[in-house]
Amino acid sequence: MAATLISAGMDEVRQHRAWFFVWGIVLIVLGFIAVASSVLTTLISVLLLGWILIFSGVFDVIHGLTRHRWHGFFLNLLAGLLYAVVGFLMVSNPALAAATLTLLIAMLLLVAGTFRLVIGFSLPFEHRGWLILNGVIAILLGLSIWRSWPISGLWVIGLFIGIDLIVAGWTELMLGVMARPLPV
Known about the structure:
The protein is mostly helical. The chain has helices spanning 2-15, 17-36, 38-66, 73-92, 94-122, 128-147, 156-178. It has one domain.
């Protein structure tokens, strides 16, 4: 069944391969723009997240107030207020919010990398070298972000978004390129 699904998916890619190719190029260009202006990309993404939190918080509070007889009324109200306050703090000072989020990213990379190393060295399994390499890279990234923090808070998020766009674009581009019709 999985082979049938993959085959059906590849037929769809073959049928629309030009769109995959074009979309891949668009994502790659956007990714390079995001990397080149990583500070601006970081601030825009933090502002966007802040506004999303504000709107969702307001709607959560409204939902809670209109359902005041519901047992989860206070949870809705408190969660909505928390979302709105955090969103307001992010919008009012996006550089500080970016620095805070970047520090959290650095800590996540350090913890995840350490966990991967512990698992890689303690459990015998085939090809565990890749997991160990992944752990080392995660720790090195986390340390480099942490050592240059808070300045890194201005560019890390934008850089990561840009890199993700480039990789996603490359994936779409390769799907379009590799999906040429098979010779008969």
